[in-house]
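User: Fold this one for me? It's Cadherin domain-containing protein.
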Amino acid sequence: MGLKENNCSTVRVTILDQNDSPPSFRDMPRRYTVSEDHQAGRRVATITASDSDILGTLSYSLVSGDDGKFSLDETTGHLSLRETLDRETKDLYELVVRASDAVQHTDTTVYIQVTDTNDNPPQFYEHAYSFDVPENAKGSQVR
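Assistant: Here's what I get for Cadherin domain-containing protein.
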C-alpha cells in the first residue's frame, strides 16, 4: 500500500445574520402623564425598542391615536407635543407606536394622560345676585 497524505487547513465559516426577528419594545412605562400646560415642542417620553438581528436598524412612527397633537422622531424615539393639550377637551390619548427594522415591525400602545391645570377662571351662573340679610344675622346665617 502507498503512503497516505494528510493535510490540515483552517477553514473560517461566517454565519450571516438573517433579519428574521421583529423589533421588541423594552420594558418601559407605557403610561405617561402630561400637564395641559406642557409646552408644544417639548418632549413627553422616549420610546425604545430593540432588535436581536444585527442588521436591524430601527425606526419609529406613530400609527394612530395622536389627533395631530404629537410627533415622534423616527430615529431617536422622542415623543413630543406638536401643540398644547386641553384636558377639558380630551384627557387621554391612546397612541399606537410602531418600531420597524425595514423588514418587520411591532406595534404597541402608549397612553398619555392629560392632567388639569387651573387655566379657566371661575364663572358665575347669573350676572347679578340679590338677597336680603336681617340686620342681626350672624355670618353663618346668610343664605
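One thing worth pointing out: The chain has no helices and nine strands.
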